[in-house]
Write a structure and sequence with these properties.
By secondary structure, the protein is mainly beta. 4% of the residues lie in helices and 39% in strands. The protein has a single domain, classed as Jelly Rolls.
């Protein structure tokens, strides 16, 4: 009955099924093996099994990129911050991002929404399973789970297990690295842990 109802509503089963399964680890909890460190790094460190991103004295931003490039993938991570930062996960390049925290342009939290260079935030993540508003899903100063599925130009995002966003990008790259952002011109910090990814060959 549930399958029939979903088909009737025209809702992609991707929004509800968890294809993540057993993915490969993007972070070993000890060092930055598998990541490209920025030159003269003062922003990124490993503390107690987590990646810690923290603003430097000049409030310069910094991005951390995987060495490996991905096409279609299912990626998960946990993040923790004080609710004041501006961060996100880059999808294949620096112009396609799933936001975490306060948007510098909109001045409000846009966690799990896509930021697309030249378009801003074309859609806003919204809770769809009973709790009104993503802000009610986000746990400040606690660990949150973000899951991103990128299949071709289509992005889906889950926050703490709830599907909150679907967007199809007009200028998505076919392949590229996954990145973490520490936004510039802010005093902020954010922690990441349990970063995993599963490549989705043939899922288009």
């Amino acid at each position: 009955m549930k399958t029939v109802l979903l088909a009737f509503l025209g809702i992609s089963t991707l929004a509800f099924a968890d294809h993540h399964g057993k993915g490969e680890s993007l972070f070993n909890g000890k060092d930055f093996a598998g990541w490209k460190m920025p030159k003269d790094n003062i922003w990124w460190s490993v503390v107690d099994g987590a990646i810690v991103a923290k603003s430097g004295p000049r409030k310069r931003g910094s991005n951390l990129w995987t060495e490996k490039h991905f096409s279609d993938f299912d990626m998960s991570c946990e993040f923790r911050f004080d609710g004041k930062g501006d961060s996100g996960v880059f999808v294949r390049d620096g112009g396609q991002q799933i936001q975490i925290g306060i948007s510098g342009s909109l001045k409000r939290d846009m966690t799990a929404s896509p930021y697309i260079a030249g378009k801003g935030y074309p859609v806003e993540a919204e809770e769809k399973e009973g709790v009104k508003g993503v802000k009610n899903l986000l746990k400040i100063d606690e660990w949150n789970k973000l899951r991103i599925v990128a299949v071709g130009p289509k992005y889906d995002a889950w926050l703490n297990g709830v599907h909150v966003m679907t967007y199809t990008s007009e200028n998505a790259k076919a392949k590229g690295p996954i990145g973490l952002q520490l936004h510039g011109n802010k005093v902020m910090s954010i922690d990441f842990r349990h970063l995993t990814v599963k490549e989705l060959a043939g899922k288009k």
